[in-house]
Amino acid sequence: MNGKLKGNMLIAQGGGPTAVINRSLAGAVRRGSRFSRVEGIYGALNGVSGIINERMVDLSAVTAGNLEDIASSPASALLSTRDKPDNEYCEKIFRVLEAHNIRFFFYIGGNDSSDTLRIVKEYADNEGYEMRAVHIPKTVDNDLVKNDHTPGYPSAARFVAEAFSGLDLDNRSLPGVYIAVVMGRHAGFLTAAGELARRSPDDGPHLIYLPERSFSVSGFLRDVEEVYKKHGRCVVAVSEGIQEDGVPVAAKLAENVEKDAHGNIQLSGSGSLGDMLKDHIKSNTSIGRVRADTFGYLQRSFRGCVSEVDSREAEEAGESAVIFGVEQDKDGSVTIKRTGDYAVSYELSALEDIAAKTKVMPEEFINSSGNGVNPAFREYLRPLLGCSFTPGGARISAPRIAPILSRS
Amino acid sequence: MNGKLKGNMLIAQGGGPTAVINRSLAGAVRRGSRFSRVEGIYGALNGVSGIINERMVDLSAVTAGNLEDIASSPASALLSTRDKPDNEYCEKIFRVLEAHNIRFFFYIGGNDSSDTLRIVKEYADNEGYEMRAVHIPKTVDNDLVKNDHTPGYPSAARFVAEAFSGLDLDNRSLPGVYIAVVMGRHAGFLTAAGELARRSPDDGPHLIYLPERSFSVSGFLRDVEEVYKKHGRCVVAVSEGIQEDGVPVAAKLAENVEKDAHGNIQLSGSGSLGDMLKDHIKSNTSIGRVRADTFGYLQRSFRGCVSEVDSREAEEAGESAVIFGVEQDKDGSVTIKRTGDYAVSYELSALEDIAAKTKVMPEEFINSSGNGVNPAFREYLRPLLGCSFTPGGARISAPRIAPILSRS
C-alpha cells in the first residue's frame, strides 16, 4: 500500500477555530516528517486565502518545543479564513499548488472546508495534476455526517458542561431564571452538553432547547413557569440556532441580518437572543430575577478545560490524514467511528460524502417534549469529556436546626 | 488572649457568590469545631434572610467528605441573599440570634454584607447582648477598602485572563474587532485582569476601559481604529460599569433600569452594553467583522480555573475570622495585607472601616490615556493568579516560503 507520489505537503486550517485544532496540525506535521517522499512541509496562513496569495511558512523548521506550545494552544495557529472558493478561486489555488509542487494537501476544517477541498481536488483532477487531498475534521458544532463526533466538539462540550455546573450552583444561591445561549446553528449537540452538568434530579439546566425542534415562544414561557413553580428557580440552555416556524428566533430580532461568505446568518458575537428571551419572561411573568448570558466565543477558545480525549483524538485525526494520504495514497475525509466503550477508529470517507452536509441530533437523543435530552445522549457524550470531568451540584447535607421563635 | 464567651456559632454567606466562597465557609467550620466554647455550628440558609426566618442547618453534622466537596465547589453552599436589613430587619435578626444563643456570628460577603453585619452588631450592643461579629471578605470586584485584595477576586481574574488568552488567539485566527464586557460596577480590577493574558506586545486585549475613568464614545472609536490600523484586528476589554459624564453607558441604553435592594443598577445578565458598542463600531467605521461577548456569571462561578492562591487564602480568611472572634474575643472585618512577594497576613479592621465603602483601581495602575493598565498592575496581580497560570499567545515561529507565482 505504499504510495509513490513525492513532493511537498501543504496543510491549512479553515473556519471557526477550536481548542484542539492545533493538535491536528501537530499530528499531521509530526507524522508527515517521517516520510522521505514528503520533501517540504508547508503551512498556508489564513487557509485557502494564504494559498492564493502564496503566504506560506516552512513547518519543517518549527522546533519540537514550539510545535508542542502551539499544539496545546486553542485557535488556529496557521490562522483561518471564511473564504468559500468559487471556480476562479480554485484555479488560483491549483496554480499555486502546482508551482510549489504540493502533492499532499491537508485541510483541517468543518463541512464548508471539506467542500472547499473537494472543489480544489476536482480542479486538480481535471488538470491531470496528481495530488492527494485529505480533509481533517474539526468543528465545535459536531455536525459532520458519518462521524461519531468531531475533534473540537468534546472540549467545547466540556466547557458548556463545566459552565452550567457552576452557573447552576450560582442560580441556586441567588434564585431566579437564568438563560444561557450556546453555539449551534443547525445542530444542538453543544447546547445539549449542558445536560452533563446535572448530578441530581433538581440540578439545572432544567430546560434545553435545540434547533432540531421548532421553538415556541409560548411553550417556552409555560415550561419556564412550570420549572420555576417546582424548584423556585430555572436554568435554561438555548441553542443560538433555535427556530420558530423555520425562522431563526435570533434573525427575527435583527433588522440588518449579517451573513458570512457562505450565506450563513451571523448568530454569535451578540447577546440579542438571550436578551429577548429574558425580556419576554420579564414582561409575561411575575418572576423578578431573570438573567441571560451568551457563552459566545469562549466556548471554542477557552484553554482551561480541554478534554484529554479530544486532545488525543484531534492529534490522531491529523496523523491519520497523513497515513491515508501519504502512506496509503488515498483521498478523502478522516472519519471517526466509535468502536467500543470507549474506543474509536479512524476511517476514510469520500470528500463528497462529508462536504456541505450537516448532521443534527438524532431523534433518540431529544426528549418527547422537545425541551430536554434523553439518557442516550448522556451516554453518548460522557466518555468524550474525559475522565477528569465530574458533574457539579455539590451541596451541603446537614440537618435543620429546629426553629425556636417561629415554631407553632 | 483567650475569650470567655460560650455559645453557638452562626455563619452565613451574602451577596454575589464566588468560586472560593465555600473555602471560607469550610475554613470557619473546621477552625470553629476545635473550640469547646463553640457549642453548635449553625449555617443560615440564604444569608440574613435565613436568620429572620429561622432557616438554619447544623454544620457540625456535615461529614469531612461533604465539607471538602462543598469547599471545592463554586457559589454559596449556604445560599445567598440580596436583602439589605433596615432597623426592623435587624431587630428580627437579633431576636433569632438571642433565641438560639448565637455568640459568634460570621458573615462572608462584600461591603454590603459588611454593612449588614455592622448594623446587626450595633443592635446587639444596644441591647446589651454579648456577641462577637466578624466579617469574612469576598468579592470578585476586589473593591473592599483596606484589603490588598479580596478572596474570590483572584479566581475571577484568572478566568478573565484565561478567557482573553484564548479569545485573542481566536481573534488572531479570524481578525476583526472583538469586545468582551467584564464584571465591575465601580472598580475595574476584574476587567484589568485581561492584561495578564498578554505575552507579546501585539497580544490582546489591546484596549482596556475601566469605570475609574470617564468613557468617551468618540475616543473609544478613535482608539479602536488606531489599533485596527496597526494590527489588523483589535481585542477590547470593557468594564460593565463604564460611565460617560457620570452616567453608566449601560444605563443609557435600558429604558427600564432594574435596581436591586441596595439601589444598584442591574448591569450583569444582559448583553446590551457589548451589543451597543459593537453596533457603534459597525455604524461608524468600515470594519467588517465586529463581535461582542459579555462574560456574565461565568466569571464568578466557573469551576475550571480556580487560583490555588485564592483557594488557600479564602480558607485562611475563614479560619482567621474564627481565631479573631472566638480565640481573641474581637469584632471586625478580616483584612488581607500583602507582606512579601508573595506573602500575606490576615489582620482585623473595624467593621465601620470596611462597611459600604468602595475601593477602586489606584491611579498608578491605569495608563495616562485611560485605555489600558500599567506594568504596576501586572506586578500586583501576577502572584494572585497562582503559579499554574501562564499567559497565552503561543504562535508558530517558522520562516516564510518564498513566493513563486507572485514574486516580482
Q: Gist?
A:
Chain A has 408 residues and is an alpha/beta fold. Chain A contains 14 helices and 13 strands.
Walk me through the structure.
Two copies of one chain form a homodimer. Chain A is 36% helix and 17% strand. Chain A contains 14 helices and 13 strands. In chain A, strands 3-2-1-4-5-12-13 form a seven-stranded mixed beta sheet, with helices on both faces. Chain A is elongated, with a radius of gyration of 23 Å. The model of chain A has no long low-confidence stretch (mean pLDDT 92). Chains A and B meet through strand 2, strand 3, helix 3, helix 4 and helix 6 of A and strand 2, strand 3, helix 3, helix 4 and helix 6 of B.
Gyration radius of chain A, in Å: 23 Å
The amount of helix of chain A comes to 25-40%
| Average predicted confidence as pLDDT of chain A | 92
Strand order of the largest sheet of chain A: 3-2-1-4-5-12-13
Low-confidence parts of chain A lasting 5 or more residues at pLDDT below 50?
A: none
**Major beta sheet of chain A, specifics?**
7 strands, mixed
How many helices of chain A?
14
What is the CA–CA distance across the termini of chain A?
85 Å
Order of helices and strands of chain A: EHEHEHHEHEHEHEHEEEHHEHHEEHH
Global shape of chain A: elongated
- Beta content of chain A comes to 15-25%
Number of strand elements of chain A: 13
What oligomeric assembly is this protein in?
homodimer
- Helical/strand content category of chain A: alpha/beta
Greatest contact between two chains:
A-B, 82 and 82 residues
